Each structure stands twice: as structure tokens, then as C-alpha cells.
Fold each of these.
Amino acid sequence: MALILEKHELTPVTWLFVVDAPLVASHAQPGQFVIVRVDPHGERVPISITNFDREAGTITLVVQQVGKTSGLICALVEGDELLDLAGPLGLPAPLPETGHAILVGGGFGAGAVYPIARELRLRGVEVTAIVGARSADLLILRDLLEPMSDHYLACTDDGSVGYHGFTAALLGELLAEDGARFTHCYAIGPMPMMRAVAETTRPYGLKTMVSLDPIMLDGTGMCGACRISIGGETKFACVDGPFFDAHQVDFNEAVVRSKMYVDEERLALELVTGR
Amino acid sequence: MPILYPTKTPMPALDAIERRSLWDEVAVGYTVERALAEARRCIQCQDPLCEQGCPVGVPIRDFIRRVALEDFSGAAELIRTRNVLPAICGRVCPVEHQCEAQCSVLARLEPVGIGRLERFVADWERAHPHDGAAPATRQRAQKIAIVGSGPAGLTAASDLAQLGYQVTVFEALHAIGGVLRYGIPEFRLPKAIVDEDVERLRALGVAFETNVIIGKTVTIDELLGELGYAAVFVGTGAGSPKFMSIPGENLKGVYSANEYLTRVNLMRAYSFPDYDTPVQRPTRAAVIGAGDTAMDAARVSIRLGAEEAHVVYRRTRAEMGARAEDYQRAVEEGAIFDWLTLPKRFVGDGDGRVCGMECVRMELGEPDESGRPRPVPIEGSEFVLECNLAVIALGTNPNPLVPRTTSGLETDAHGCVVTDPETGATSRKGVYAGGDIATGAATVILAMGAGRRAAGAIHEYLQGGQR
């Protein structure tokens, strides 16, 4: 059981939770995740760790309501408990000591970008953050991310704030301008966005890492549900990742595998919402 | 000497056709009459060889005598002196390779049904609860951490708690039992039995911490350091599934046996959408491998609605690893065995879902390093086995989490933690290991034996420390 200490609305469908989890907080590294279960009949879902405070013994999770389980989590309030919380899982993101990293966050992936930015900043690496959303009201965590970035660039699909267009398009413009100034790229967000980022940086040979979140079950390397092909080799995202070389990822396969249970996911959601 | 029945008293079981759609336990268990009949087949050897075949040293001859004398509680008490999980062992032990393989009547007759009698006694005890388990009268201050709540860990925990140590079992998943929980299906081992055994351990004073991944949430270095544990037993099992590295292995509908069984057993996906975790329901399933896990996967597939469940194995029935009883049950339920068949690749449909498996027929050749005849592909015998679900049940590798995160813990080329087989002692002082993490994938009872030996060695180590 893990007590929810705070809950904040980020968008009408995205929430931030601060959870009491001292052991997870004391061992967490940027890029890791936890597995959460909220109902005795519930499934185990991976959630990126957005922030950890070792002294307070808390971790921060950002959850967007997309299916049944994320909906159940988002319905919890301060004082409620997460039935099961296990972590930190996965390997820490491999981060450089020097250079200039460009971080790309899409949708609620911005939450997972934050700990990367914070750590890079701490190490003295220059940080450019590109954060995208469909519109201004859906852009999240600017208050957290902007102070951790040397350059903070917002993007919206409708142009309601910042750059009018996709994150990868803005990234492409920055690279075309002066690609050589960047030494690393990290992208976290929806699969099409990460794929677009990979294709954008590929011609520049810019080392790019993406954080993959395939379907997981135990999260400890026991089942292989989360297997993905990296440079033709099968890896488990839960123990070998979640960060992988974007230019080696077989995105086609990853997209197909992520849709393994679309029918079941739709049914589960319909039974809850009555639609 | 009375005349012995040549065959074991039959085990009543659910009807083979009806149970194809039921998750209830298949083997119903002996009645008192059947148990008495079977117990009286035991000739009460002066030197009971069967007991040498038991990794935890159950006093088999004497408990069977108590059964024959209708002293079931006495029989239970005797078993409990050596086996803390008799209801489980009575169901899943590969008795034909252990105790029953040593049975003296085996030369001429079927051996005494030791496993069935153990189960009968354990079930009798479950039905007649008594205040058996209580914390040890002499409590010791030292704390001992058990990593993993499978059969090795539970046995070590029980022994150490009975010696009065302060025992905490750490489990990575949200439920206790390890492979007993996620690996073995309900129809072979009802989860209520695992729950009861865990409760018994709690009554002994054992503490359980779920959702703690040793090596991630806490390290062994920390357990032995600032957290003040005097010793650690690592029983983290062989949790990492093997794949074949053949084309199409990552198609939708291709599962490791671990994933398939975990979805069904731990997460109860067969009750989706009442339970939230889904699993694909096959119409034609192909299970690769022929061990216990492959039998479980085939029988699970049948219960999930498969019209055909194939078990594909590159060798023959003579070399299969499965327990005879489970093989028989699978046959009764309609599993189809494709011996001498090797998968070459998985075939996908336009949607990236598996729709078949290309296989090649094999023939047996000269003996290989294992001494078994080497299966050799027959050229030009390729064919496609149609299936919309495939399960790879070719075994597991040791779980690497603890070895990777513990300083000074030596592993071998297979990733197994190196131990002294007599004591479970590892290269790291105060750290013991046993079960699949030390031996590679084996059986429940061997893991229990290792947990027992390590518990004894830990006790000795800590006593020595006090002197």
C-alpha cells in the first residue's frame, strides 16, 4: 500500500500524484518506473517516475486517463492508497556528464522528461527542452521543466502557444540551424512522436535515446511480455530498458505489439463507462 | 504378508470432457477408504529406501503406517516434522523420480502412491484445523531476510522461524508464493492451498513484504548493512524465460510460458473482464516443449477454449520432462502431441498476429552429450502448423537481478549463484542461496530441500557467530 499525499490536476485528463514511497524514493534514478495495481482484480501497469524526493520519501507520478486502469488511478484522491506499488524498475537513463542535450517530451511524456532534465542540469549539461501538446491547455509541467532547462520551447499542434507544429518538426529546424551544438537527444512520448524524433536525428548522427513503454506484466524480467527488437536483437524493456538507442528500435514491431489487446482494452473501458 | 494390489489405488478425478472448460482441481483426492487401501499396500520396509528419495526427508514409512492405522492427525504431525508444504508437494512433486522411484514393491508392482497419500493427509489436516502453528517458544533477536517467496524461500522461512529467528520474506510481486502462485495452474494446485500455507507461516511469526524487489527497492548489501539482517537466503528462482531466437517470435500471440501462465494464474486472466488482465483465447494453440510447464500451458489453452492444443517437441515421449501424471491428464483432455517436431519460424498474418508455425520433422540419430539420441531434421519435411497462439515452454534462466546488484556474489557461466550444495553458502559471507537460482530450473521439492539445508547452515553460522 502506498498513500497518496497530494493530487493535482494538470489537464482535464492528466493528474499528478505525490505518493509516500520511501524505499522507492531512496533508490530511484532518473528514467526508472514503478508498477502499480489499484484494485484486487486489477492489472499491473508501469508508470514512469516523474520525480523523487529522498528526504521526504515521496515519488511523483503523472497519469493520463486513457483506459480502465489509468481511469481508476485518476479517480483516486488524497488520502487514498495505491493497492500495490513496486519499484524502482528498469535501468536508469544513461546520461552524459557534459555536452548539450535536447529533450523532447510529448503529451504526458513531459512528466518523464523532468527527472532527466533535473539530473542533466545537476551535472552541468546544457539542456534544451521541447515540450509538445495538442493545445495550450494540454501542455503540462511547464512550471517544473522550464526552470530545469537552459532553453524551454513549447509546441502545440494548433499553435495556441509556442511553436505551431509537432515537436519533431521544431527539432528538425533546430538541427538544420546548427545541429552540431547538440550532443545527445532524449525523447519520451507517444510512439509516433518518438519515431519521428528518431528519423529526424538519424541523418545528423545525433545519439538519441527513447523511453519505451510496451505492455508489461511483472516488470522484473520474468515474463518477456515487453520484448522489443533493438538492432535485430530481442530485449526486455523492463530490465534492459526502458531507454534504448532510438536508431536501433524496430518501431514497426513495437507499434504492432502495443496493440495486442486493443479489443480487450476497449471492452474493459466500455464496461466501466457504460459506453 | 497380505496380498498386495498390483496397481496404485486410482485417484478420483473430474471427468476429462467436463473439465476441459473448468479451472477446478482435476485430481479430487483420495477418500478415507482409498487412502486406507493404498496405505496398506506399503510393506513397511525395515530400511525405507523411499525416504532417501525425498529431498526433505519426510518419514514416509511411518506416516503411511499412521494412515493405515487411521491415525491421520498423527500422520500429519509426522509429515510436518520435515515438510512445511505437504498439501503442495502431495500435488506437484515428481514422485516417480523421487520417493516412489525407490519404493521396494516397484520391482514387481506399481509403487505405493506416496504422493497421493501425502496429499490425503495434508487435506485431512486442512479439513480438521487445529492450533498447530505458533511462534517458537525461544525467540532469537537476529533478523534473517528471505529473498523470494517460492518453495525454497517458504521452507527456509519456516525452519528459521521455528528456530526462533525474526524472519522476513521479501517478494517482488504483489502476491506470495513465487512459482506456486504464478506458474502452477489452479486446476493442479488451488491457490487457496498456497494461501493456507502462507497463513501458517504467519502464525509461526514470519513477516511478509510484497512489492519489494531485492536489488532494486533494497539491495542485499543494505539488508546486511544498515538494515541489520544477520543473514540472507536468496531463493529468487529461475525467472527469466528462454526464447528460441527464430523469426516471428515477437508476433502478437507468441508468449513465453511464464507470461501466459502468469496472466492466467497470478492475474486470473481467464476471468477477464471480471479481472482486468487480458490473455488471448486461442482456437488452435501450439506449445513448444514437453516439460511440466508445457503440459500446464497446453491444458490452460484447452480451458481457454482451444479446439486444438498441440504440444510440439523435437524429441520423443521417452525424453519428455513432464510428470507422467500430468502428461496423462493432458492426453485425456485432448492435447495433441507432435513428437519429433522442431519449430523453424512463426508465420504472421497481415495484422502482425501469429497464424502458424513452420516446423520440420526430426528423426533420432546418434546419442548426444546428454546421452540421449540426438534429434536430426529430416530434409524436406517442413510443414506449417496452423495456430493463433504459441507458447514457448523451453525453460528459464536464473533471475539476474540479485547477482547483478550484490557485491561479491559469484555466479557461474549460466548465471546461477555458485553455492556449496551441502549448505547453500555463497561466495558472500552471510548470504545463502538455493532452489532454481542456484541449480537452474528444477522442481518444487528440490528447491524445498535446498531451503531446508540452507536454513540449517544459517542457524549453524549464526550460532558460531555467537560463540
Note: The mean pLDDT of chain A is 95.
Amino acid sequence: MAIETRKMRKFLNDPAQVVKESLAGLAAAHLDLVRYDAAAQIIVRKDAPRKGKVALISGGGSGHEPLHGGFVGLGMLDAACPGEVFTSPVPAQMLAATKAVDGGAGVVHIVKNYTGDVLNFKLAAEDAADEGIKVTSVVIDDDVAVQDSLYTAGRRGVGATVLAEKIAGAAAEGGADLAKVTDLVKRVNDRSRSFGVALSSCVPPASGKAIFELPEGQIELGIGIHGEPGRRRADLGSASEVVDVIVEAVVSDLKPKRGSKVLAFVNGMGGTPLLELYLLYGEVDKKLRAAGVEPVRNLVGSYITSLEMAGASLTLLELDEELTKLWDAPVHTPALRWGV
Amino acid sequence: MDAATITSWMREIDIAVRAERDHLVQLDAAIGDGDHGTNMVRGFEAVVQALDSDGGSPPGKLLILAGRTLVSTVGGASGPLWGSALRSGGRVLGDQATFDGMELVEVLAAALASVKDLGTAAVGDKTMVDALEPAVRVLRERVDGGASTEEAVAAAREAAEGGMQATVPLQASKGRASYLGERSIGHQDPGATSTVFILRALEQAVKEHP
């Protein structure tokens, strides 16, 4: 085990314990914001449950840090249920999280559209309803790289998840009711589109092997957040050329009105430095303005990652006054903090 | 067949997925996210532990216990899918202490129905249904035709293998492989593959505890 671990170029004690040990570390680093319930394997806002406040929980496979545990705190999530790396959590975690945060006003489950997440959250919502907790669920599916049709599992949930958690979390903090908070998650999802590219695969700690091999000079277009191959491979061009492809994919699907104000979220996949992410943002900003779209808010950094994958994604959210105000509202979590 | 058949079935699955873990991981890495082998090993390890600490439940209750254990330990899609499948199958047997070939058909038919319902998949979508549905159909045909349970299960396992191989040229339209579109063509589906292991394990269990 020790030798295998050293071969991996990862900081590990035991690959089987990586999620638990990381969650314990997150809680140790942010005692003022969150607590870690090791038995249930959930991260819970320190002051939960808050009486009368609608609670938000999300969850999914680990390996996307800071998503979701890093977004638990004031103005965002009330709890996060991390599964094993790239594996959906189990219903028991979601039920424990739902019960831990329910302040009587209801609980919103924010679910990324992956078969495992959807099935496990569905079973958990049924269990919670049996226990008399009001639960609504919204499935996030913003990835334009996946064809959406009745005959597929549909689009993946990616960057819009972060934006929905922030915006709906702000509304819940401000006293919005369950219907309103649920509607905001839906609205953010409806008005967001994402597209991701990768320059490398990633190495899950359990297998120790890269999920795919990408020859030098090639780029995967239309990747998700699990190290899975994208829809097609192409020769890697300049950053400007790559951003042309990304912006075209997102804008042609979102179809923002001319003069629209948007939030542009340039996200790193874990192995791309901020140096390059800002370079990408500069290109995105320029190309959006040229297309008649105004990026009035932005988020640049690695917020929904795929372990150490080199790559980036763009999420555009078409804003209105209400969404902008909620985006600007105070947030205090391990990974996002402003206004406090 | 009785409780020992079920216990032996679950043990054989545990042994098989452990032996084939890397194979499943590889298949899944090609068109999914590479966690299928690890998930199945974690799940059936927990199932064997749960059955070990069970004190003499009838076969139906053992299947329900196994299903509940999968739901609560696996995550991913395979946890809820196989978990619900075994629970639905177990409910068919109620509290009875033994079951025959006909009843085994109904157990697997209920399992298949629950997988299709929860996963909304059909044959041809490149999923575990491609292996499970032909297996259940052939099992029923053989049992109806008067074959011994052992022969019928062997034929069902063969049908599952055929279904598994038939997933290779398919384009996935359900599950995570569907995100790849055309690039999923040419790869054998990991869910259909582990379904074959589960039927091979059943064949072994029926042989040992007829």
C-alpha cells in the first residue's frame, strides 16, 4: 500500500481514507464555519439548524473540491454530503444532512444531473418525506457539451451548481420561503450554460491510474468533471482559439439577448494555474463584449474541479436585477467569502 | 433452494467482483468515470458482512438485507439500482423458507422491473439491462419448458453474456457513458459486465445449494 501510494504523486495515508481525512481537515481549518459529522460523513454549517430558515443541501462525489463542503456557511449551503471520489453519496448521508439542517421551513436538495446522484437523492427525498420534512429537489444540468434529448441521461450538472448554491443560499439567508428558494435554483439553472476543456486526465486515488491518456498537443473538448473523456479531441490551438470554441458553444446555446448582462465564471479543473485562468478570463471578457454581451460579474478560480486535471470551463449566467443582488449578497464559507 | 443459496450467491458475487475489480475499473474508465469496480467491491464486501451477522433469516429477508446494504454503502448508480433490485426480488419471497425455480424467475423478474423503473433504461441503451433482461427471459423460458433450475440458470447466464457482448457496438443513451455520444461505441458496458458476474455467481450458488 505504502509503495503504491508513493508511486501516485499524491499526499495520501491510505487511499481508502482520503475523503474522510480531507473532510476532517476542512473542519479543522474552518471551525468557525462548519462541523464534520464523521459518522454520517457530512459537513454541516456550524449554527445549523437555523429555525425558520429554508435550508440548502447538496452533495455528490468527492474530487471536485471546494465543491460542495467548501460552500457550507453563511449565505450558501447548510450541509454537504460528499461521496467517495467521483461516486455519489448514499441516501443515508443525504437524510442525515436533511435532518441536521431542517429548521422547519423546508430543505432544498441541489442535485447535479448524474444518474447516481439523481437516484440516491431521489431515495433520500422519499425517506425525508416519510419523516415529515418538506423537501424539494432541483436537478442542475447546464453542460452544453452533452446532447439533451429524451433518449439520454441529459446534460451534466457542472458550473451552474456553484452559482445556484450562492444565489439561492443568499435568498434563504434573507428569509425567502421554500417555493422562492427552489424557484431561484431552477432559474439559475435555466439561465446558465457551461462548456469545459481538458489538457490532461486525472488520477483517482483508489485506482492510481489516469482515466485517459491525452497525447501532447491535443485537447479534449466537452469534458465533464470526472476525468471522463470529452465528446471529441482536437489539436490544441492558442488560448484565443480555444476560447473561441468555448464561447461559441456556450453563447449559441444560451442565446442571450443582445446587450444582456451576464456573470462569467471561468473555472479551473484543478491543475491549471490562476495565471492561465486569468488569461482565459481576459479572452472571454473580450469575446463576450464583441458578441454584444456584457460580463458585469465574474468568478475566476478553481471551484468545481476534477482532482488534478489540467483544464478549464466557462459558465455563463444571464443575470437580472434580482439575481445580481443575490450574487452580491454577503457570503462566508471556506471557499467563497465577501461582504462580511 | 433456501437461505444458504442466497448467502452463497452473495459470497460468490463478492469473490467475483474482487477478482474482476481492475477489469471493471478499466471498462468504466473508458466510457464512464472508473469507479464501478471499486463500488461493487465495497458494496458486496458490506453485504457479506451483513449476512454474516444475520441470525437465520429466510431467503427473501436476506435479499432485502443485501439490497438495503447496497443502497447504504455503494452510492453511484449501481448502489440504488442493484439495491432496489435485490429488495424487490426479496419481497417476492416473503417469509418462505425455501423457493423453487418458478419463484427464482419471479425474484429476478421483479429485480429487472425495479432496475428498469428506477433507471428508466431499456434494452439497447448500453446498460446492465442489456444483460439482465435476456437472462430473465431465457430463465423463464427454460423453467417453463421443464428444465432443471441449474440448467435454466446456466442458460440465463449465457444469455447475459450474449447481451453483454452486444453492448460493444452500441452508443450509450443512459447512464454516464451517454455523455460520450458516439465515442461510447466499441466499448463493453461495465454495468452489463458486472451483471454477468452476478449471474455466474447465481449459477455457482444454485449448483452448491440446489
Note: Residues 16 and 197 of chain B are 6 Å apart (CA to CA).
Amino acid sequence: MTYDIDDTQEEVVSEIAPDTPLPKDLIEHLESRKQHRKDVIHTTEKLTRFFVGWSLNSTGFLIAKYLLITGGGVNLWLAISLSFSICSVGSLAGLTGLRVNYNSDGLEVDNMQNLIKTAGGLVFAGVTTWLAVKDHQYFENLTKETVTQISQDIQTIEKQNPQSDPWVSIAVALALFIGSIAIIFKGRE
Amino acid sequence: MKQGVFELALAGVCGVAAIIGLATSQTRQPYDLTQIQFCPRSANGIHSQIALDKRFCNQPRFVLTEEWQRYGLYGSIIPYKGDAIQWVRDLPTDNPNQLLGGAVTVIGLWGVVGCLLVRSQRLKRTDYELGELEKTGDYATWQHNKYKREVKQHSTQLYTERLKDGLTDLDVHSRKELGLTDEENERAKARIQLEDFMKARAVNHSVMDKTIAENLRDRAKADQERGKIEGKTKGAIADSDNQQSVDQRLISDLIEALKNYEDGWLWKVIDNQKPVWVLGEAGSGKSTLAASIVMLREYLFDMPLYQLIDAHAGENLRKAWRYLSPQLIAQTEEEIGQAFDDARSRWLDRINNQPDKRPQQLLVDEFTNYSESDITKEPAKKFVKASLSDPRKAEERLVCIAHFFTNTATGGSGGTAKGRARGTIQIDRKTADGKKPLPVATINGLNDSSGEAEVDKKVTIPDWLTPDKILDHFNGKPINFDA
């Protein structure tokens, strides 16, 4: 089925009622006000994105700390993975708009800056995760150091005061062997 | 505005909470530690033990509490030496509220995010509204200032003119003193100025007169064009008026003749709201009389014939009904049965729902046959019963034709004989040979001047009471009622 659409009719339908004619200087003033409102909205959105990033990082940081304080070293990798994942949410969301295409002219990448921003965000997520676990690592290293010292001390004591001489065992074994041989051969005579 | 302040204040509070939380979560020792000591036992006497303690036992050693709690258990990294490794004391974290502080920080930051999100969404949503408010307010300010400027400008102009007049007056005065001019000369100049002014005013008036004349001319042209479009030139309008007066006179003559014929029975029949039943044998002139009654009502009372119900309508329209113009025709049995039902519902509708209804007529022929057919029998019966009461209120005049006025001949309407006799007018026409109608008839259903029913009243039918002559009367051949 075909429809005959009259162009003039379409124009009439889509016609917009004329607004109040305003003087030129007032129009300029209103344009500047409009731009100001847009700037305010833009700034607010930027600020929101900034705080979203900080909130995500602090959330990841807190979760890692909570896991390590309440569970100890058992939760170390869980804490690292959760913290890094949460911290990098904002960075990965920033990949939106990235387009990579390969054609005869080579590799084409649109919105390359998003990739750089994301890489920066991931580095930041890594730093945050490191900050979250570094204290635990420090005290764990302290513990290991103490353990190493104790082990060294044990070795030192054992070297100076050996608990038994292997030759004594050999001599006893040899004596038992000779005694048993002697008893055997004495019986034959 | 208040909402904006509230959003920013709440965001500020959340931000401060986040900072306080961050500050309170700081700590030098976030994890619990335990101090232990390694005191090996000597088998060589007390001197040897003192030497060992001095060398190993008095040395402070720290491990994570969680690690110490695993001592001697599976997974412990501390070598098991029984009582040789001993607990000395616990060193709990220096900030037990560090997690709480961190939670406050996180909640505070998300609170700031929430406030900012609400704010940006609100700003986006109200952007257009704010723009319109600014436009309206600023436009009002602009208008106000514009009026003030105009007033100022006008005031300045007035002042300038007044100053000019004053200076001119001073100039004239000084020139008079110098003898360069005198009073008479100034009056002459003033008179010339006045004449110029009057002339200019006259020119303005003439321009306005011209505009008025042009407007009047355009209006006359428009009237003329409209007259042409409506097909009514001045002459036609005059002819129409003349024709109307002629028609009115013909109607008056006819009404006068009807009223004066015999004792006026004919006018009583025409003017009556009761259904008229025209009865008689074949060839007695029933159809001619019925058509004449319908036509008279059409011409005299402007009552159109709404419907013709006639099984023989096809032939009759070429003969008896050829001057009638029914809007609807019911001819087949199905149509006739439906027409009877429709008539009843139409009467009710006109009575109940149409206060400003135009009167109209209904003509039913061959009624004798409708009680015989199974299709029309019931509708005809109900139609006759309803016709005794409804048509009068429904402003519908009914003319029925039948051979006799028996129950069967009037649609099998048993039980209505008395009502039909009093509630209808029956005109019984006669014929001597079944071919030519006699000019006499018997009429029932009319009342005399005292309200008494006239029974079997003998009347004569005037020879001018035919459709042909009635049509001619209104088309250039008026009936000569005196002949």
C-alpha cells in the first residue's frame, strides 16, 4: 500500500507556534544565562564523577581492610581481588565509546583517550589495593622475621649442644653384632 | 532555591563526615600483635640455663596475634618447640574504631555523590523551566525600562519644545525692541502658520475620507458577489418575494374553499390529527382521495410524505401516487413488516426525544392484505393499535387505505373496534359499477359543533378534489371554486 503524503501538509503539522519576539540585547543576555546553566550542570556532573571515583576507591579500600582485620592472611587474595575489582569499576566504565577497528588502512581506534584514562584508573586501583594490604604485609613480614630468628636460634643451640653422637650408635650396634657372633660360635665348640 | 541550598548543605555535611571518618580511621598499628619469647631449657645445670636465657629468652619477639593463635596447629609458621616458645603479652591495635571510621568515610562519600546526582538531575530537569522564567522576568524588566526610557524621551522632547518656544518668544521680543518686526507682522506670520496647519489637517481628513469611501465600495462589491454566489440577484429576490405572496394567496383560497365546502367536513378531515381511513370497493376512488388528502397537507401545512407503505407501490407510483414524493417506500412483505415496526419505534422516538420535530405524513395502502401474510400480520396488528394513540403526539399524520373497516381488513387488529371507530376518521367511498367512483361518501369519526360524534354522515366529494387539480392550483392554474 502506498500513501500520498502532501509535503505542504506535513509542514503545517510540524509548524511551531512563534514565540514572543524579544529584543536583541535581551536575547544575548538570555543566551549567556542559558550557557551559565549548562556550565553549572556540566561542573556538577564532573564533580559527581570525581566523587564517584573516590567513593568506589574508598569502598574497595574499606572492604580489603575489613577482610584482613577480621580474617587475617587467609583473606589476603580475596581482599586484593575484591578491592581491585571495586576500585577499577569507574575506570572500566570509562571504556564506553572506545572503538577499535582493523581494516586495510591499518588499526583504527576511536576515543583513544578513554583507553589512557582507563589505564590510569587501573593503576590508581592498584595503588589503592596496595595501600589497603601494605600494613598487613608489613606485619606479616615482621612475623616471618621473628620466625626466622627463632629458627636460627634453634639451629645455633643444636649445633653447640648436639643431642646424640652417631658413633655411639655405631659402636653399640657393632658391639651387639660381635656379641651375637661370639655367642653363636661359642655354642659350636 | 530552597532545595538547592538543602542539597549543597547535605553534600557539605556528608563531605565533613567523610573527612572526620578518614581522620578517625588512621592508625599506626592496625593489626593485633603478640609478644612472645624463646626460652630453651638447658640440660647442663643452672649456669648453662642462665647463659641460654641471657642469650635467647630476654630478646623481645613480635608476631601477628592470628599467627600466635595458630601456634602448634596446622599451618603455623612458628616452629613448634613446646613451652620453649611462650606468650608474653598482647599488643592490640591502637585504634579499635578504624573500621567504623572507614565506614563513615565511605558512607559520607557516597552521600556526597547522591546529593550531587540529585542536584544535577534537578538542574537538567528544570533547565527549560528556569530559562522560561528568566525569559519572562527579564522581558518584563526590559518592558518596564523601555517605558521609563520612552517617558524620559518624551519628557526631554517636551522640554526641548518648551525651551524652543521660550527662546523664540525671547527672540521675537528682542527683535521687536530692535524694530526689526512688529505685532502686526507677527500676527500675519501666526495666521499663515495656522492656515498651513488647517490645510494639512484638511489633507489628513481627505485621506481618511478616501479610505472610508474605498471601504464602502469594497463592501458593496462583496455584497454583490455574495448575492451572485447565493443565486439571488436583486431581481430574483424580488421575484421570489412576489411568488411567495402569490402562493400564500393560493393557500388562503384553498383553505377558504375547504372550510366553505358543505359544512366544512373536508377542512375538518385535513386539519384533524386522527388517522384517516379511506375505505371502499375497488374503483371507488380511495387512492385518489387519499393522495388528495396527502397533497393538501403537503401544500397547506408543509408536511412532507415521509413513507409510503404499499405492496403495489411500483404501479401506483405511476398512477395514483405520481404526484407524491415519499422519502421512503416499503413494497415487499419484509419491507412492509419492517416499516410497521419502524413506524412504532419512530413515533416513540419523536415523542420522547424530538421536542422540535417537523410534522410529516405516512401513507399505507392495501391494508386489507396485511393481515393475511405471516410476515406482516403481527407488525400490522401492533401498528394499528399504536396508531390510535401515538401519531398525534409524534406529529405524524396517518392515511390508511382498506376495502373495509373490519378487524381483518384493518390488519387483524382484534379488540380495537371501538377505539378505531372513535379514534379514527373513516371515509367510505362508493361506486356503482366498480369502475367509476361516485361523488358521494359516508364519513364517520368527525364531531359536530357540540362535540357529538356524527355517525354515517353523508357527504359529497367535490370534483376539484383530485391530485391533478391540486397540483395545477399551485402551478399557474388556480381552481375555480365557484364553478
Note: The radius of gyration of chain A is 40 Å.
